[in-house]
Amino acid sequence: MKSWRLPKGVLVYAFCDYITAALAWFVFVIFRRVTIEGRRFSTSIFQDDNFLYSMLVVPGIWLMVYIIFDSYRNIYRMSRLTEFTRTIFASLLGGLLLFFTILLDDLVNYLGGYHAYYLAFGGLLSIHFSLTAFSRMLLLSIASRRIYSGKFSFNTIIVGQHPKIEPIYSDIINRERQLGYNVIGYLTTGGNSSPNPHPLAKHLPKLGEVGDLNELVLRHEVEEVILALEKSEHTKLKKIIETLDRHSHTILVRAIPQMRRVLLGKVNMPNVRGVGLLVIKTHFIPLWLRIIKRMMDVVASFSVLLLCSPLYLFVAIRVRLSSEGPIFYKQERIGRYGKPFMIYKFRSMYLDSEKGGPQLSSDEDDRCTSWGRIMRKYRLDEIPQFWNVIKGDMSLVGPRPERQFFIDQIAEKDSRVHSLHKVRPGITSWGQVQYGYASNVEEMVERLQLDLIYIENLTLGLDIKIMIHTVLVIFRGSGK
C-alpha cells in the first residue's frame, strides 16, 4: 500500500490560516475597543491574560471550522474561485460561532442595544474574511505561477492508444505556459490488434499494460492519469476506473474529448486555458452535503463525549475489573482514501487474543470477557470511536473500517471493496445494523453489498435512518 502523505502545501496553508486568524483577531480587538467601546488603544492590552489566551484559542477555533469545510488539500489542485467561495461560507460560520460563544455575553457587560452587536459581528466578519481571503489568494497564486513556470508538476501517465493523443501530448509539452503535467510514460490496454505502434512510442517509454496500473501508480507516485481509449477499448473503462478509485484522493483522472460520449454524466468541464481534457468526477458527494455531514459528526460527537462522560467512566471501571489489561484497545484500520488510522475501543477481549494472527469474532467467541460480551451486545465497546470522529478519521455513519489483512481477502471475492474508501468509515453503517460483527469473510462480502448501496445513495436522510436503527439495536440489546 502507498504510504500516506500530507497533501502538498497543506502545512504552509494551515500555518498561514492560523497566523492570519490571529492577526485578524488582534485587529478586531483594537477595532472593538476604539470603535465600539470608545476607549483609546493602549499597550496594556498585552498584559491582559484574557486577551493573550484568546490569541491562542480563537485561531484554533478557526482551524476547526476550516477542517469542517475540508479546506486542507493539495494547494496545487485548488481553484482560486472555489476557495474564495469556500472562505466566504467558512468565515460566516466561524464568525457566528465566535459571536455567540465569546462576544455576545462580553458585549452586554459594556453596552446595550443591537447596534453594537451588528457592528461587532460585521467588523469581525469583514476583518477576518479580508485578511484570510488575501492570504489564501496570494498562496494559491504563487502555487499557480510555480505550475505555469514549470517549477512544479504532477507525475502523469497515459492509458490507451487513441490516435488523437499525439497532438494533445504535443500541445502539452510545447506550451510556453506549462500546465503541470510531467508525462512519464504510457500503458496499453492489450486489446488493440493494430500493427501500428503506439502514437507516443517515439516520445515516451511504455510502462506496461493496463493490468499493471495499480502497481505503476504506486511505484511512480502517479498523481494524474489521462485516459485515451479507442472505441474498441471502452469495455475496459470500468476496470480502469475501479483501479483508480483506490487512489481517488491523490490522483486526478482526465480523458481526451473524444471519450465524452462514453463518460457522459461522469465528467466536469475542463479548464478553459487547458488542452481540452475532460476531468472525470471522483467527488460524487456534493460539497454542501460533505460540509453538513461533517458538522453533524463533530457537533454530535462532542455532545456524546460531554453528556455521556459518566457512562464512559462506568464502562472503563467495568473493563478494568473484568480482566487484566488496558481499558482501551487500539488497532490499525484503513480509512478514507486508503489512509491507515488507529481505531479506539473499550477492550472486550482477554489479552493476547490474536497470538495466531488476525481473527474475526463470532457470537460465542471465548476470547471475549463476560463484560465484553455485554458491551458488544449494546455496542458500548464502540463509544470511544466518537473521538475518532472528532479527529476526522471516521464519521457517525459510513462503511465499517477493516484491517488491510481482511480487505485483501474481500478483494479476492469482490474488488469493489476499495470503493468503500471514497468516504469516511463510520461508527455504524447499514451493513453493521443488518449484520453486526461479521464472523467470516463471506459475511463481510455480504455486508459490502449494503455498504456500496449506501455510498451510491448517500443522503442526510439515509444517515438519520441508519442512526435511528442503530439506537434501536442498542436499546434492544440485539447487537452481536
From TrEMBL:
GO terms for cellular component: membrane. InterPro entries: Bact_transf, EPS_sugar_tfrase. GO terms for molecular function: undecaprenyl-phosphate galactose phosphotransferase activity. The chain crosses the membrane at residues 12-31, 51-72, 84-104, 116-139, 298-317. Residues 293-475 form the Bacterial sugar transferase domain. The keyword Transmembrane applies. It is found in: Membrane. It is an enzyme of class 2 (transferase). Its EC number is 2.7.8.6. Gene3D superfamilies: NAD(P)-binding Rossmann-like Domain. Keywords: Membrane, Transferase, Transmembrane, Transmembrane helix. It is a multi-pass membrane protein. PANTHER family: COLANIC BIOSYNTHESIS UDP-GLUCOSE LIPID CARRIER TRANSFERASE, QUINOVOSAMINEPHOSPHOTRANSFERAE-RELATED. Belongs to the bacterial sugar transferase family. This is Undecaprenyl-phosphate galactosephosphotransferase (EC). It comes from uncultured Aureispira sp. The lineage of its organism: Bacteria, Pseudomonadati, Bacteroidota, Saprospiria, Saprospirales.
